[in-house]
Design a protein that fits this description.
heterodimer, A: about 260 residues, alpha/beta, Rossmann fold, five-stranded parallel β-sheet, 11 helices, 5 strands, about 40% helix, globular, B: about 350 residues, alpha+beta, 2 domains, eight-stranded mixed β-sheet, four-stranded antiparallel β-sheet, 13 helices, flat
């Protein structure tokens, strides 16, 4: 086998809970296999060194301050490949809730009379600021998908995030539909790739991977009505992860 | 021996016996629905069930199936699976047996598909005849699949205290031969079977408004029917209908490297004409962009194209697509609407002439 030169890999986090990096660190034996293929030079959850010489950068978290913007642009200049890791980085995630109210009001609510001392901007997924080469959706990321993406990076192949609904994978797993159980589930509008992870374990889909490109709003509304769910109900569910894209989704669903 | 009988009290004993013969798959309750699963305890087997979430096709055409092992350096390929195991599908409805017959036609059509045939060879089918409707979603009588029409090794029919077993193959015969509590059916048993079938005629009625040949004609003459607009508007392209269909066989093939980046596996994985990117080709052209066109395609793949190609309808009447559709798109209603459109357009043509 041809010896690959080991690419240097760094992990950086912005506004997030670091849970996706934790998933990575918790990968088990696959992580050891990965270290045969890559040099991890910067990953503060698992090591104390913080190398600044890297080719591949995993970015966790959303961009929410002017400083974040400067920092991510510096990373982009160095890295050959940028990988958005997790819901915050790919779609804004939970932090997107800030975008629902005017920035000044949000600041007041959180910081009270210290609001003036805080720099904050609207929540943005990473690709709104710099070019992103690979997307790993999910809150947290799904390890089999992480491994698939890493292999694509190493082989220089693009990774195509599925553009069909979670239902497709859910049905292959032969789950009983959540709607059969009178639960509202975001599977029909949410991008697959997680192997219907939550539903396999008896939960429902919370839409952490974002909407499919073409969510069929007319049909979707019919379905919600039939099951006695209002559009506001579902939009509320959707804002948990997708508020930074709120305007787009409002438009898609409310048209 | 062509027909045998087994007392209901002996059934579990026989199922234990079958379990020892080969891997046994049977319907089992899952939440409020049913699924085929490997049998651990024979007490879990449900003989009275409505069609399972997925048809048994997952055992002869798995959702994700290994096709080939390969290495890059040195370049080598090998069979992904050396040996396939014997298995028995127990209590398969006649609609699902029709589904297996359809798959057989497709995968035996040249070039034959060895991946399917390897599994099919190891499969024994024990059917069970429905004596009542599972629910109002099924259209098995219109498709004439509510009665056994071959394609099985054994067929079980409930005649009160006993089950009649129709022995339809050598494979089937081997599973009843020499079993002390399975006896040859008497004339009285056969009369019971006759009676059950007569009773059944009173229950099962054609669900479509028209005969199958009229249904075919409606598909043939009304490619641009209005009904697809309505269906397309309601569809959300979740792909449930194609995943649960016993005769949908589209797949994608993908290579997956392991972490050595030198060795890998080639898989095939179910694919669906309902997905957004299914009919997209290089250059971005999409031959079935709208959900209306994709749904129409699905129906034509059941009621028109396979009839022309294989002289066989590829709808089995199991009703799964209707049952699973969140948008409540009903196959019976859709076909009936198309038949009506056909009648109207025929009348208009006649008037114009």
């Amino acid at each position: 086998m041809k010896k690959h030169s080991k690419p240097k890999v760094a992990f950086f986090d912005f506004t997030d809970c670091e849970g996706c990096q934790l998933q990575f660190a918790n990968m088990g034996s696959a992580l050891l296999e990965l270290t045969e293929l890559v040099d991890i030079v910067n990953f503060r959850e698992i090591m104390s060194e913080a190398g600044e010489d890297y080719e591949v950068a995993f970015i966790e978290g959303s961009i929410t301050t002017d400083n974040d913007v400067k920092r991510i642009k510096r990373i982009r200049e160095k890295a050959k490949a940028i990988i958005s890791l997790g819901a915050c980085a790919t779609i804004g995630g939970v932090n997107g809730i800030k975008n629902r109210s005017p920035l000044e009001l949000a600041k007041q609510r959180v910081y009270g009379d210290k609001a003036d001392t805080v720099n904050t901007i609207k929540t943005m997924p990473v690709h709104e600021v710099v070019k992103v080469d690979y997307f790993i959706n999910g809150c947290p990321v799904y390890i089999p998908e992480v491994i698939s993406v890493v292999k694509c990076v190493l082989m220089g192949k693009p990774y195509i995030v599925p553009n069909y609904a979670v239902c497709v994978e859910c049905k292959m797993n032969e789950n009983v539909c959540r709607y059969e159980k009178d639960q509202e589930c975001l599977g029909p509008v949410t991008r697959a790739g997680c192997n219907s992870w939550c539903i396999n374990y008896g939960n429902k889909c919370y839409g952490c991977r974002g909407l499919v490109d073409n969510p069929a709003s007319a049909g979707q509304k019919d379905i919600l009505l039939k099951y006695g769910i209002t559009l506001d109900d579902i939009l509320q569910r959707f804002t948990l992860y997708n508020d930074s894209m709120g305007e787009k989704y409002d438009k898609d669903l409310k048209q | 021996m062509k027909y045998a009988v087994i007392k209901k009290e002996d059934l579990n004993k026989w199922f234990e016996y079958l379990k020892k013969k080969a891997r046994l798959y049977a319907p089992k309750k899952k939440e409020n629905l049913y699924v085929f699963r490997p049998v651990k305890e024979v007490s879990e087997i449900c003989l009275d069930y409505i069609p399972t979430v997925l048809p048994p096709k997952k055992y002869y055409f798995p959702q994700k199936e290994k096709l080939l092992k390969f290495s890059v350096q040195p370049f080598k390929t090998a069979k992904a699976i050396e040996e396939f195991e014997e298995f028995i599908l127990l209590a398969v409805h006649t609609c699902d047996i029709a589904g297996i017959q359809c798959m057989d036609v497709v995968f035996r059509d040249g070039p034959e598909d060895p991946n399917y045939l390897n599994r099919k060879e190891k499969m024994t089918i024990i059917g069970i005849e429905c004596l009542k409707y599972c629910d109002d979603k099924a259209n098995c009588a219109s498709m004439a699949n509510h009665v056994p029409r071959g394609g099985y090794d054994l067929m079980m029919v409930d005649i009160d205290e006993k089950f009649i077993l129709h022995i339809n193959s050598e494979k089937g015969e081997r599973l009843v031969k020499g079993v002390a509590y399975i006896k040859e059916a008497s004339d009285k048993d056969m009369a019971c079977l006759e009676h059950a079938r007569e009773e059944k005629k009173k229950i099962f009625k054609e669900e479509f408004k028209a005969s199958l040949s009229e249904v075919y004609e409606s598909f043939d003459n009304n490619f641009n029917a209005k009904v697809w607009e309505d269906v397309g508007r309601r569809c959300v392209a979740c792909g449930n209908c194609t995943a649960v269909c016993p005769t949908c066989y589209c797949f994608d093939v993908l290579d997956d490297m392991d972490l050595s980046l030198n060795e890998g596996l080639r898989y095939r994985i179910w694919n669906s004409c309902q997905m957004d990117d299914f009919a997209k080709v290089a250059g971005g052209e999409d031959f079935r962009k709208g959900r209306d066109l994709r749904q129409r395609h699905r129906y034509y793949r059941k009621f028109k194209y396979p009839v022309d190609k294989f002289n066989r309808y590829f709808c089995t009447g199991c009703g799964r697509c209707t049952r699973t559709c969140m948008a409540k798109i009903s196959l019976i209603e859709t076909v009936n609407a198309l038949v009506e459109e056909n009648a109207v357009s025929k009348k208009n043509t006649a008037t114009a002439a």
